[in-house]
Amino acid sequence: MECCGPGYASPAEAMKAPKEKLLYTIAIYTGTGIQKPDYLATIDNDSDSPTYSQVISRLEMPGIGDELHHMGWNACSSCNNDASMQRKYLIVPGVRSSTLHIVDCATDPRNPTLFKVIEGSDIKTKTNLSAPHTVHCLGSEIIISMLGDAQGNAPGGYLHLDKNFQILGRWENSMGDIKFGYDFWYQPRHNIMVSSEWAAPNTFMPGFDLEEVGHLKYGREIHFWDFKEKVPKQTMYLGEDGLIPLEVRFHHDPDSSHGFVGAALSANIIHWWKDKNSEWQWEKIIDVDNEPHPEWPIPVPGVISVILLSIDDKFLYFCNWLHGDIRQYDITDPHNPKFTGQVWVGGLLGKAPEVNGVKITGGPQMIQLSLDGQRLYVTTSLFSTWDNQFYPEIRTNGGVMLQVDCDTENGGMKINENFLVNFGEEPNGPSRCHETRYPGGDCTSDIWI
Amino acid sequence: MNTAIITISNRDNARYHVDSRKPLLDSLRAQGVDLPYGCKYGGCITCAAKLILGEVNQKPQVALNNRQINDGYVILCVARALTDCTFDIGVESHDKLYRNPFLDPLAPHELKADIAQPLEPET
């Protein structure tokens, strides 16, 4: 029998995948004043198509106020050898409603349809969890980080679904002394999972009060889990170097122990690895300086809202949402990153108020990279309430998606002049786009076991 | 009587009779008022409205800091009317709800209730 299941046999195989011709991103009306459901937008990314760089379909969610945010596939390369599995469904959670939307993207990839809804009330009743964030598939099963209990208190836990989207309960056996949840990534050959910390939903959802960082309402630790036992076994206290550690990325190479997390408020990149004595170590490898601003009493922190690794683990990308730049570093030596590229998109420093003829409100936020590493897609909204605090004009201007062309040989980045999706011009009014995925998998969706 | 009259000043002063034992969000939506909402447990601020006149009980809310409460904000998904009330609703009422936290910090007494310090009386 010919192999295979979904995804690719290895990261090297994934790099040979055909170019992504469709993009999916979520778009929100929650918090914008427009009383419409959030939706999954499908974008035509075939440069030969008459509808290139346009939204070609919109799948509205059944309710309003979900705040769609991140999403993940039902299956990825972790079940590449399971021919019974198919990368067919996107799990699209609402952070505020806690409702999970299971979207069929395979029957007609240009027009995804709603396959199933798992109500937030059902999840709360069965697991006492709320505020879904990161979705990873675990072989044929699914785990989702849930940032709060049913009342929005930290630390929440992990929701476990089977491949038919039935709630199995809590995935973890213990949260140990973990104070907060956010993102996670696992590397099974080292029997390790690493999780990071944002804050309790009741803290971050209403908006960002800086004073709450000092009151220890925001995270500053990362956690190393025994993946098989499903218990946290070691905590790294990052302190002032690691305020609000968000996106967690292991190397795609399943044999590697190296991984990275971006500390949003400290604007640092933290690197970890397993040393010769099988001890986990961490170090700060990148420190983005705060920048002066004529109207600010204190320099503006970068606020690293996302990080991402190319599928060959050669480049690290991240965004400074408040400064407005996207950076590329060569991390061939993960202890000694080399700064190789930078572009500016919006931001508070006024370096790029307009890109491709459109006024940018917000800064570079979520990014997604093509499997061949050459095209980076960026969106500008972070989270409705935080957008409203830092970039209030986004209410009337909406978000945008841009493409940045990346030089994978010599390093370097350049904004593509032909691609722009302006969510300020959506039929129901300005919406805001966030995470992006492609039908065939991308640089944050797939894990090799 | 367990009813109160709610007036929405930025909807042509439309008036609604509500059961004061029920959350305002549920009562008003049931009567066709198009209101934003998110978590429905008082934690996410999406449904905030500005109270102009009257009194509410919103003890279950955990989203607002004390400055937002002093500015009149009410979390409709958990708030009950204690008297007849007048509100501004929707994002038009959110002029003071969101602030740049770096440019406009909170004083210790303006934080959320669980971490706020009492305001020292002036001596």
Proportion of strand residues of chain B = 15-25%
Task: Spell out the CATH superfamily of chain A.
Answer: YVTN repeat-like/Quinoprotein amine dehydrogenase
CATH superfamily of chain B: Beta-grasp domain
Give the integer mean of the pLDDT values of chain B.
95
Rg over CA atoms of chain A: 20 Å
Helix content of chain A: under 10%
N→C terminal distance of chain B: 45 Å
**Class from helix and strand fractions of chain A:** mainly beta
The CATH class of chain A, by name, is Mainly Beta
Per DSSP, the total helix count of chain B is 2
Question: How would you describe this structure to a colleague?
Answer:
The complex is a heterodimer of chains A (449) and B (123). Chain A has one domain: YVTN repeat-like/Quinoprotein amine dehydrogenase (Methylamine Dehydrogenase, Chain H, 7 Propeller), CATH 2.130.10. Chain A is 7% helix and 38% strand. Chain A has 6 helices and 30 strands. Chain A has helices spanning 11-14, 120-127, 201-204, 211-214, 384-390, 394-397; strands at 22-28, 39-44, 55-60, 72-73, 89-93, 100-104, 113-118, 129-138, 141-149, 157-161, 167-170, 184-187, 192-195, 221-226, 231-237, 245-250, 259-263, 268-274, 280-287, 304-309, 315-320, 325-330, 338-344, 354-355, 358-359, 367-369, 375-379, 400-406, 413-422, 432-437. The mean pLDDT of chain A is 97. Chain B has 123 residues and is mainly β. Chain B has a single domain (3-95), classed as Ubiquitin-like (UB roll), CATH 3.10.20. Chain B is built from 2 helices and 7 strands, in the order ββαββαβββ. In chain B, strands 2-1-7-3-5 form a 5-stranded mixed β-sheet. Chain B has a two-stranded antiparallel sheet with strand order 4-6. In chain B, 43% of the residues are buried. Chain A binds chain B through residues 30-33, 35, 64-67, 96-98, 130, 148, 150-152, 201-202, 205-212, 215, 217, 295-298, 300, 384-385, 388-390, 392, 395, and chain B through 34, 36-41, 43-46, 62-65, 90-92, 94, 97-103, 105-106, 108, 111-112, 115.
